[in-house]
Amino acid sequence: MPVPTRDDFLIDPSIVFLNHGSFGATPVPVFEEYQRLQRAMERNPVEWLGRRADALMADARARLGGFVGADPDDVVFFPNPTTAVNMVARALRLQPGDEVLTTDHEYGAMDRTWRKLCHEADASYVRVPIPLPVTTASDFVERVWSAVTPRTRVLFLSHLTSATALVFPVHELCRRARAAGIISIVDGAHVPAHIPLDLASLPCDIYTGALHKWLCAPKGCSFLYARAEVQSWLDPLVVSWGWESDHPGASAFVDVHEWQGTRDLAPFLAVGAAIDFVESHDWASVRRTGHELALGTRRMIDELTGLAPISPDGADDDGHEWIGQLAAVRLPDTVDVVDLKARLFDEHRIEVPLHRWNDQPFVRVSFTAHNTASDGEALVSALRVLL
User: Is the pTM of the predicted complex or chain greater than 0.85?
Assistant: First the structure.
């Protein structure tokens, strides 16, 4: 099978694009299918939305379920993981004294969601510090689990973190949570088509993932998976025709969450085209090369700054790999991340995110099908000048 190249994408050829992790990038054939679907809808919107939408969405969910290892009746499309987690968090109806257990590596929008809802309910949002560099999967698991108390109601974890770009070993913590009667919610925004995902073998209650990132679907395409046993209490954010449906389908979960009134369904319906693109190309090679380029670029930046990496290069002593195709690399404490990010783009045409996490400056690099070694080298050359 062929390996995709930059020519398969619509990215501006004048920029070095090292920020696939934020919003993804859609391949040409997937984008064309997305636009074809939009045009088809406009030919007869009433037929499309009124008579065909249910069947089309069912087909899309079937493709998605097969790709992520889930029953199609247990997955629902959402525009992004933040919206999906907001639905779940509000449906929990937290009570005074409840605790939501997490780490200090979670995505900012999720932190804000949980802080707000915990504050309103007089509950506690407990963030376990995970110091850098990380060491082993077993150390991570024990650090998090040591914070469980009789009041812990929810375990919320990233599968692959945004700020620190680390693959968390979530399986064992979800297993323990299930045994303890704690609801486990996993934020897998960066996971589909990036690292292996099989929801049938992951013992979590809730999982959400973005499809417009590493799977390269059109923007505004994500999903929520819910184990059948927890679906009954997941009240929708938007109550519409699926609630008390006149024509109930096989899954009440899908009925109440899928139809939210008039909206563009094309991003969801183009998921099949995105899966086709991945499966018709050598995606194992894309992942392997992206992983190697992420680690290689991290080494070059660390050599430039003299700072240590935040995780092992390869598998740790437990056999866990902390890095996929995304790597967060420390920068000197004196760096102004806002200024440096602007100068990288304005002076060197490099699109790459810089941020502070726990008051430490980081640059985060993404490598996928449209990247080559020259992209990482361009970043290192620019940093050598600007630092």
Answer: yes
